[in-house]
Amino acid sequence: MKRMYMALAMALMLMAAPALGEDDGEISIQQTAGIFIEEVTYDDVAWNFPIDLSEMDPDLVRLANKQMFLPKDFVPDDLVTMKTRKQDKEGNNLNGGVKKDTGGTLKLRAECAEALVTMLEDAMDEGVTLYLKSAYRSYQTQATMYYNRLESNNGKDLGYVTKAGASDHQTGLAADLIPKEWLGKGMTRAMGVAEGCKWMANNCARYGFILRYPEDKEDITEINYEPWHLRYVGVPVATYIMENGLCLEEFHVELQAAIDQFLADGGRMSLVRDFIQVSAEND
Length: 283
Ligand SMILES: [Zn+2]
Description:
Muramoyl-pentapeptide Carboxypeptidase, domain 2; single chain; binds zinc ion; alpha+beta; 11 strands
């Protein structure tokens, strides 16, 4: 669809349109026969992707998975501690930990933390109570978790705990949330039927979050369905991913194709370099 518009835009430009500007990222909107066409160009090279470069933060869309490892020393520099805002009748900390004793130890990157608090408060206004169970995990914490899980599973990797460097939690942008009605029932795929999880799936994109491990993408993410695991990517990217039923890996395939095209058309490497990720050594 997008490509068709682009082709149409080019054809119309040849006919009558004023020249595109010289500036980076100029958006030219032309009206011809009642059709609005929007095209973003950088030095006259089209950025042919549903989301403009200026609306994506390379840091926020960073991938961590079994193919793309984060470096051992990767620690987000703006982690903030999730503070308790409210408590329910049983003394559970809303927004900041599933029980009192975990409150104050959960950290997220600042922008993600702010979006999460807003989301949790809005959810509560709609009668949905979600508890933050897990947030940032360091490389070392993940390494210990992986080792312990392997030990308890007789050395078998069942796909719930990832190796150090491959965990979304190391980005500081991942949050595991449990709906109140599911407390004590265990973190299994069955949780997806909980009203709180349905609310998350339907509303998270408005706050910049995606469901990081969807049920129908297990073969791509290589992680079992996790209805509790949200990942912050920013509103434009989250909206695109959730509306199109993608997972973050698929988004990256599309983004990489757009980058390749942009560079092939003569686009400047400096504009897209930060989006090109290279895996750290995995040991
Ligand atoms: Zn998680």
